[in-house]
Amino acid sequence: MAYPREHWIRIRTNNPLERIMREIRRRTRVVGAFPDGNSALMLVAARLRHVAGTKWGTRKYLDMERLIEQNREEITEAVE
After folding, report:
1. 62 falls in which pLDDT band (50, 70, 90)?
2. How much of the chain is helix, strand and coil, in % rounded to 5?
3. CA 71 to CA 7: how far, in whole Å?
4. Where exactly are the structural domains of the chain?
5. Using CA atoms, how far apart are residues 25 and 28, in angstroms rounded to an integer?
6. Closest C-alpha to 23, from 44, 37, 41
7. Distance (Å, whole) CA 64 – CA 70
8. pLDDT tens digits for range 12-60
């Protein structure tokens, strides 16, 4: 499947996910040793909730409307 030109720069890299993972790694290193797995999970979940609740977490990374439009065109061409 050929992606729209404007998507290629964003498909090539996965910066938002890498940024979240780097932030979680940084915060878990500060704590050092966790008493159990649940405390580590609670720290990670709290950080992910914070990211999801902020403006940064609601930002669109890819505009899927262009991809949907392209798929419709391909289906129409295939039917004809």
Report:
1. low
2. 75, 0, 25
3. 14
4. 5-79
5. 5
6. 44
7. 10
8. 666 777 888 888 889 888 888 888 889 989 988 998 888 888 876 666 6
